[in-house]
Design a protein that fits this description.
The complex is a heterodimer of chains A (about 280) and B (about 425).
Chain A lengths: L5 E4 L6 H10 L1 H15 L9 H20 L10 H23 L1 H4 L1 H4 L8 H31 L13 H22 L5 H15 L15 H8 L1 H14 L6 H25 L8
Helix pairs in contact in A: 2-7, 3-4, 4-7, 4-8, 4-9, 8-11, 8-12, 11-12
Chain B lengths: L2 E13 L5 H15 L11 E2 L4 H4 L5 E13 L3 E6 L5 H8 L7 E6 L3 E4 L12 H11 L4 H15 L14 H13 L5 E5 L7 H16 L3 E5 L3 H7 L2 E6 L2 E7 H12 L6 E2 L5 E4 L3 E8 L9 E4 L3 E9 L3 E12 L4 E6 L7 E3 L2 E9 L6 E11 L4 E17 L27
Parallel strand pairs in B: 2-3, 4-8, 4-9, 6-7, 7-8, 14-21
Antiparallel strand pairs in B: 1-3, 1-5, 9-10, 11-13, 12-21, 13-15, 15-19, 16-17, 16-18, 16-20, 20-21
Helix pairs in contact in B: 4-5, 4-6, 5-6, 6-7
The chains are: A mainly alpha (about 280), B alpha/beta (about 425).
């Protein structure tokens, strides 16, 4: 038996190191939650995880028709428009799904949280893990379509060294989804108003992020250009596209600024979450 | 003996009513007070939680579910927490298991603490029994390796080995609960907190659970146990804490605690007008009004001689006429066990009763061992509907002497509840 006192009282000090230690103690639980999510999502379906491919394929088809054929927004020349949209969507879906699910952490898990204590952060962490699983499948699909374009459709492959930054991009997206999600989830324990906002807000955010169009189609003089630069996702999503097409916005300064902003949001998220988790049962 | 749990002035306040714009107003006030470095203004007000608040006409929106709870628990102690519904037991357990934080005060504990406020927390219906054992175990704080090591034991204890790879949504409710309890029973915490989870499964499984919990208690672990089942509390615990309206009213040995708790229920379990506190079920059509112990040996002492029949008479008001009524009377021991039951239909039929007042007299054969007992009274219809039910409505003290100086209890300790007429035959060789 340990010999120190664990103390439970109102407003314990915020201790980031203890939070990470608790998470590492409960890593088995994170993994089991992840397994539960994946297994239970595709129980009693015939296509199983194949469904993960169907959503981006159809969205990309719609984008190709609407943005490519009707609105005639140009896409980089060395990649098919379909592959271009698929690339943006796989990263975007990872961020948006994770953000959406993490925002519901307290409300959807209230019955479990109300009965037993475990570090609450394990749930959002497992959401990120299952998001990564889905991303891998969707990204794999993009690689297939991309290679097909190079091999059979005559697109010239223009990869570059920033491909090595992909894990960093993913990490940044994860932390941003985590931070924003935790903030929203903490605020929705008492007042549900934010839930309403997040529902359509995420959809709107997609249009404020260069997913369905390349960044440079926005004219330099427009207000929207500057606005887009304030979105921390812009630099990262553009970076992902740049890695595969050598076309688009790649700026180390912008990436650093985005990353700093994301880390700030993440720490703020964990701080608010850790305050709220101790008393949310009384108001949820 | 070292102290492993310390509760220091634990209090918990709740706000009544739904969350709405008024909460925002309170939150703003709270924030302003905090910014000015003052104490939370709402901590000054609030009533103690009470079931009869509607009657006392309290207007405060804030309620103290717990107020200034203090206790220390040593390593290896098995403590039962008892009290009426709404006494604050579950709130206390929630704070002890860290589900919520106290509004004021501190809880300190040493070692690994696991709580079992519900069996099968986090079970996912679509997953197999096997997956759920791992998931539930991890939620309760076990490592994957630990669960794997105990997996066979858990499955054997639950008795669902054959179905372990079937989704639990196909399980019967009994199988589900057995598997869930089996996981929890194989936790190895230093401190275990249990809320009424034994009230599940069939008798055989309940006994098995109780046995398992006794094992756990025997291994020097600290156990806190909440239940309304006085028999299981008594067989499991050594120490008892009695709670009432959010405060601790008694802390001592388990038998003393149980009798303290039951005598607390016994507000005015005397002959005369019946108090509403005893009324646990009522449909508004029938009311027992008055009860009298006819052969009370000392006026209002509620005492009868050993081996002397219990004679009770009561007045009942019927606001409606019924033609299929049955009455029942039960004798409850001081530690909460239902010992005897008698109904009018045991030697008769359902009775017709007209609108108005009815007199009822009951004579129960008394073979009870000396001690304190309570009477429960009920009026029901033939289809099982209860019209009026009264708990602990009359206290009866069976004296340890009979009317003709027949000896009641020779020894100082209690020997069961009932002394049947027995024929002993001793053959000398």
């Amino acid at each position: 038996m340990t010999d120190y006192w664990n103390v439970v009282e109102k407003g314990n000090a915020f201790n980031l190191r203890k939070i990470f230690k608790d998470l590492s103690d409960y890593r088995d639980l994170i993994f089991l939650f992840f397994k539960r999510d994946i297994k239970s999502s595709y129980q009693q379906t015939i296509l199983g995880p194949l469904w993960l491919m169907i959503q981006p394929v159809f969205t990309s088809i719609v984008f190709t028709i609407v943005f490519g054929n009707i609105a005639k927004i140009p896409t980089p020349a060395n990649i098919s428009p379909f592959a271009f949209y698929l690339l943006g969507l796989s990263f975007w879906n990872y961020f948006a799904d994770s953000f959406n699910k993490i925002s519901g952490t307290f409300v959807t898990n209230a019955s479990v949280f109300g009965k037993v204590y475990f570090p609450r952060l394990t749930v959002p962490m497992s959401v990120l893990l299952s998001g990564l699983f889905k991303f891998t499948i969707q990204f794999g699909l993009f690689i297939l379509v991309f290679s097909y374009g190079v091999l059979f459709q005559g697109y010239t492959m223009k990869l570059n060294a920033t491909l090595l930054l992909l894990p960093f991009y993913l990490f940044a997206l994860s932390m941003f989804a985590l931070g924003l999600g935790l903030i929203v989830s903490s605020f929705t324990t008492k007042y549900r108003d934010l839930t309403m906002l997040v529902g359509f807000g995420v959809q709107l955010l997609m249009y404020a992020t260069p997913i369905a169009y390349p960044f440079f189609t926005i004219s330099y003089s427009s207000v929207f250009y500057k606005l887009l630069l304030f979105n921390p996702l812009t630099g990262i999503i553009e970076g992902c596209k740049y890695a595969f097409t050598s076309n688009g916005l790649f700026s180390i300064n912008l990436l650093l600024a985005d990353f700093a902003c994301i880390m700030l949001v993440m720490i703020l998220g964990i701080y608010i979450f850790s305050k709220v988790e101790k008393r949310f049962m009384d108001t949820v | 003996m070292s102290v492993v749990i310390k509760a220091e002035h634990i209090s918990k306040q709740y706000k009544l009513g739904a969350v709405g714009i008024s909460n925002l107003k309170d939150d703003v006030q709270r924030l302003l007070a905090k910014l000015r470095g003052k104490e939370d203004p709402f901590l000054q007000i609030g009533d103690l939680n009470s079931r009869d608040q509607a009657q006392t006409g309290s207007s405060s929106q804030f309620v103290w579910a717990l107020k200034d709870i203090n206790f220390e628990i040593n390593q290896g102690e098995v403590v039962g927490i008892i009290g009426k519904n709404g006494a604050g037991k579950s709130t206390l357990l929630k704070i002890l298991s860290r589900v919520t934080e106290p509004t004021k005060g501190k809880l300190k504990y040493k070692g690994r603490l696991a709580s079992l406020l519900e069996v099968g927390t986090g079970f996912h219906p679509d997953l197999s029994g096997r997956d759920n054992v791992f998931l539930n175990g991890a939620i309760l704080g076990m490592k994957k390796q630990e669960i794997a090591k105990k997996f066979d034991e858990i499955v054997e204890f639950s008795g669902v080995a054959k179905y372990i790879d079937t989704p639990v949504k196909r399980y019967s409710s009994g199988m589900y609960v057995r598997l869930a309890f089996a996981v929890a029973a194989h936790l190895d915490p230093d401190i275990l907190i249990i809320d009424e989870v034994l009230a599940v499964g069939d008798i055989e499984f309940q006994e098995k659970c109780l046995g398992k919990m006794k094992d756990v208690a025997g291994q020097g672990r600290t156990v806190l146990f909440v239940s309304h089942n006085m028999a299981s509390i008594k067989s499991l615990c050594r120490r008892g804490i009695v709670m009432q309206k959010g405060t601790i009213t008694y802390d001592g040995t388990i038998s003393d605690s149980i009798s303290h708790y039951l005598s607390g229920l016994n507000t005015g379990s005397n002959s005369g007008k019946i108090e509403n506190v005893h009324r646990t079920i009522n449909t508004g059509k029938v009311f027992f009004k008055k009860i009298v112990l006819e052969n009370d040996e000392f006026k209002n002492g509620n005492s009868i001689y050993f081996n002397n029949n219990i004679k009770i008479s009561c007045t009942i008001e019927f606001l409606e006429s019924f033609d299929n009524v049955l009455f029942d009377a039960r004798v409850i021991s001081a530690d909460g066990i239902e010992i005897l039951n008698s109904m009018t239909i045991y030697d008769g039929d359902f009775v017709k009763i007209k609108h108005g007042f009815t007199e009822l007299s009951i004579e129960i054969e008394n073979k009870l061992q000396p001690g304190k007992y309570f009477i429960n009274l009920g009026a029901h219809l033939s289809d099982g509907l209860t019209l009026d039910y009264l708990e602990h409505v009359l206290e009866i003290n069976v004296l340890n002497v009979g009317k003709d100086n027949q000896k009641g209890l020779i020894y100082d300790f209690k020997l069961g509840y009932y002394r049947p007429n027995t024929k002993w035959q001793i053959n000398k060789s």
